[in-house]
Design brief:
Layout (H helix, E strand, L loop, with lengths): L5 E4 L6 E4 L9 H19 L3 H18 L7 H6 L5 H11 L10 H13 L1 E5 L4 H11 L7 E3 L1 H4 L7 H9 L7 E5 L2 H11 L2 E4 L3 H5 L1 H8 L1
Parallel strand pairs: 2-3, 2-5, 3-4, 5-6
Antiparallel strand pairs: 1-6
Helix pairs in contact: 1-2, 1-4
This protein binds magnesium ion.
Magnesium ion binds next to loops.
């Protein structure tokens, strides 16, 4: 079943769009999976566990976490902290293990989209990737120059769905929460908290939906 874009709320006073990066500004299932999997392989190696052993421990933790939190999901980074891997440490792993340029390429249509959106809105990124891979991703896609702010995992050292990265984004842009619109592919990670804070929210199924935002936001405002 193909998931369709879902508009939760578009604030009348929208001044900025806060984009999730991975699986939002590009759609590449292999790379999205590989980003987590490469860390999982490394995690297994340093723990001296087999890959399957490490994976089943991580999966069990996340399933249990979801059960205790009404079905909500937690991030991979947060899960690692439960196994004694600090956010600082997983940031270093990701910088070392992940090279977006190996998987992604320039996206002319996304450049065009950002050009249109940046006429009307300030553009920021709120990502659970560290700053270095986040910037590399935006560079490879060709859109980094449109971003006024990037709030990465190593900006606040807590990962979404914590509200701190969103607070920091609004603060950096000198905007009220009600003037921000969060756009991302995962409801629990990218939308639930911003919506609760009073921001707008649009869930996309991938970059194809992002291409339609100039049209949607022109009509909404
Ligand atoms: Mg994402």
């Amino acid at each position: 079943m193909r998931f369709k874009m879902k508009i939760y709320r578009i604030p009348a006073e929208t001044k900025a769009i806060l984009f999730d990066i991975d699986s939002t500004l590009y759609t590449n299932a292999f790379y999205a999976h590989e980003q987590v999997d490469v860390q999982l392989r490394y995690f297994a190696k340093i723990k001296g566990w087999s890959y399957d052993e490490a994976k089943s421990k991580i999966d069990a933790y996340r399933q249990n976490w979801a059960k205790e939190h009404g079905g909500a999901k937690t991030s991979f980074g947060n899960t690692l902290t439960a196994f004694g891997i600090s956010i600082e440490e997983s940031v270093r792993w990701r910088e070392k293990l992940i090279d977006p340029a190996e998987y992604l390429e320039h996206d002319a249509k996304l450049v065009e989209t950002m050009e249109a959106l940046s006429q009307k809105f300030r553009i920021a990124a709120v990502t659970n990737n560290p700053m270095i891979p986040a910037k590399k991703t935006l560079e490879v896609l060709g859109v980094i120059n449109f971003f006024d702010e990037i709030i990465a995992l190593d900006t606040c050292f807590v990962s979404k769905p914590h509200k701190l990265p969103y607070e920091r984004a609004a603060q950096s842009l000198a905007l009220a929460f009600e003037q921000c619109l969060s756009v991302g592919d995962r409801y629990d990670i990218d939308l639930a908290v911003p919506l609760e804070m009073g921001m707008g929210g649009i869930q996309v199924s991938g970059v194809k939906d992002v291409y339609t935002l100039p049209e949607i936001l022109t009509h909404a405002n």
